[in-house]
Amino acid sequence: VIPEVTATSRHYVDRLFDPDPQKVLQGVIDMKNAVIGNNKQKANLIVLGAVPRLLYLLQQSSSSVELRIECSVVLGSLAMGTENNIKSLVDCQIIPALLQGLLCSDLVFIEACLRCLRTVFISPVTPVQLLYTDVTVIPHLMSLLSHSQRTQEYITQIFSHCCKTPEHQTILFNHGAIQNIAPLLISPSYKVQMQALKCCSVLAYENTQVSTTLVNVLVDGELLSQVLVRMMQRDKPVEMQLTSAKCLTYMCHAGQSPENSGHQHKTFVFNGNISQQTLPCLVRMCSKEHLLEVRVEGAETLAYLIEPDVELQRIASTTDHLVAMLADYFKYPSSVSAITDIKRLDHDLKHAHELRQAAFKLYASLGSNDEDIRKKVKSPVCCLLFIWNLTFYVYLLYVCILSLLAFP
Question: What are the TM regions of this chain, as residue ranges (predicted)?
């Protein structure tokens, strides 16, 4: 930490120890304004010991509700900094402190604690197991879902990011996750709908018990699968279409396990939910009109959907010229982006490998069972491999020339 920067930051921490509660409150508010969008200031305050003091103030029953709310807001802002910031916050036991705050009766404070918890848990460096350490936490979070749209949004997002293993799926399922979260799919809030949708998706992933339950769940008198089909309509946001298709894909895929195979599953697959709705939606996600990230996720999900089912493979192979559409996945980075737009080049380079990998996965799923489809796929794949290798070496040559020209 640069000494002169530290000196300008120290007064923010010193004010947290003022004997006058009003001055402490104003100091926290000033700190909140100082750290917004300023990672250097966030790092300085963490090094200077602001976090333990903020957590102390947050947990004291003698602190005013306003002060406790402002402390949680500042902690949430610090959590939006670097991964090192998150590690420091976790090391200071921020998660137990915030979970304890959820026992407060003030809804605004509860929402502030949940918002901060959400920010901490969505970081890849936060151990998600910390959510499951205390067995009373999950049922309490379930009970808070009904309090407001904000509690619904934050809690479902926390569940989505902290559901990483079959054990986590089981814990959430056994505490009523499906019954509590499925109704949120028809919430008037788009944010709540999306987080509930993502949560249902991760719960259903390769989980027969959850998927079988979801197939039979009613949401306001309507089957959940029909609600998901409506969310895949073209007039819905792309994010909603794709996530709904993923959720139905996982429900379908888990239903193909040996203990759940047979006529019931086939009916679910070919009653229009999968073959006529989900599959075409995922093919749309592969088109070049969408962002590269969407195209990667769309292709990978489609490959996962059709992999075990030859009928779905045949349908996919004849839908919207999918085989030819995948050729576009090998056109990044483009020569135009390399020459005219360095930011676009950087973006394309980051996703070029993911695009090609997704395309090959989908090609593999398409041709895994049917010889006619293999013949349809084989020719473009061989051609693409040749062009890809040639383009790669030309691109390397181009980069080398640019590097040489950069030096006198």
Answer: 385-407
Distances (CA, A) of 284 to 42, 294, 298, 309, 317: 42, 10, 8, 20, 13
* Amino acid at residue number 213: T
Contacts (Cβ under 8 Å, ≥6 apart) of 148: 107, 111
Task: Give the residue numbers spanning the domain of 399.
Answer: 378-407
Half-sphere exposure of 84 (CA within 13 A, CB side): 8
SS3 223: strand
Q: Does residue 87 form part of some domain? A: yes
What gap in Å lies between CA 305 and CA 308, rounded to an integer?
Answer: 7
Q: Is 336 part of any domain?
A: yes
Whether pTM exceeds 0.90: no
CB 49 within 8 A of CB 13: yes
CA distances from 386 to 158, 379, 395 (A): 45, 11, 14
Residue positions counted in the chain:
408
Domain identity same for 22 and 107: yes
User: Which residue do the tokens 């120290």 mark?
Assistant: 10
pLDDT tens across 114-149, in order?
999 999 999 999 999 999 999 999 999 999 999 999
Number of domains into which the chain is organized: 3
How many CA atoms lie less than 13 Å away from 374 in the CB half-sphere? 5
Helix axes 224-231, 208-216, angle to 10 degrees: 90
Would you say residue 161 lies in a domain?
no
